[in-house]
Amino acid sequence: MAEILKADDAMERALALLEDGQVVAIPTETVYGLAGDATRGDAVARIFEAKGRPRFNPLIAHVSGIVMASGIAVFDPLSEKLAQAFWPGPLTLVLPLARGATIHPLVTAGLDTVALRMPQGFGAQLIARLGRPLAAPSANSSGRITATTAEAVDADLGRKIPLIVDGGQTEVGLESTIIKVEGETLRLLRPGGIAAGVIEAIAGIPLLRGASAGVEAPGMLASHYAPGAAVRIGATRVMPGEALLAFGASRIADADKAVATLNLSASGNLREAATNLFSFMQALDRSGAPTIAVEPIPETGLGEAINDRLRRAAAPRDS
Ligand code: TXA
Ligand code: MG
Description:
- Helix content is 30%, strand content 19%.
- It contains ten helices and 15 strands.
């Protein structure tokens, strides 16, 4: 069983485990991460093992700042500008791997690019103390809902990992936005905690969308973020027996018949909705309803990332 320590008391224990090649669940401002030393194959293999994640899916390497990052990846003026503007924060940059970088190839799945992010809070302090980058996918079993509380991590992975650092509910609630820097152009690989428009405003160029050659973010499998219940998006009425994930002030038809209802944001605030998304899906899942109906959510701002996660949760399941 995992030991659960409050972030204020967890630093030394987390460091000792990481120095030993073990994995530790840590809070970041986006979601909880399952962290291991990104320079050690044994540690990275333990991450994949605990998550039950396919090996071909590369991980984000988390850094303590641009100095550490520039030993791992090649920054050009555009990527440097984005890192300066958004780090620490929910922006992941996919950049060319630097020669001599000590990132283990399991982290990049053998690609010649690497995904980098500087997180806020406990994670950044931990990386600075360790002096090495941490590989950290979201702290959930592969294909399951992303965890935004220590309790959710414990329920999913508690039997498989030695330590969960409890930093309370994560602030952003969605994973980071992933941008691939391709020369003079920027490609949005995953919408996330920073709205695309905010990044475009700083970069001064529009983000390209959709994959270029090959599978650009192999982690973006169609079925992902799945609760136990089926998810039905764009609902216009609640069907018998369904739970309702609501948004905004007005309800769809037969909303009063839902077996359980949670409203992502009664005022229609997308930031609040993002923060609540995964924990509310989990709570509605626990209601035992076979299906969660979801009210329409606008595609603007953070709505793009929220709808992306909901579409994945609603996609046909492989297993
Ligand atoms: O907010 C977050 O990003 C969280 C917290 C813990 O930092 N982490 C997270 O990691 O969501 P993960 O492993 O669940 O998602 C990483 C995504 C995957 O979809 C993966 O395919 C993509 O990043 N990725 C990693 N390296 C890549 C690369 N070199 N090229 C393209 N995509 C890459
Ligand atoms: Mg994930």
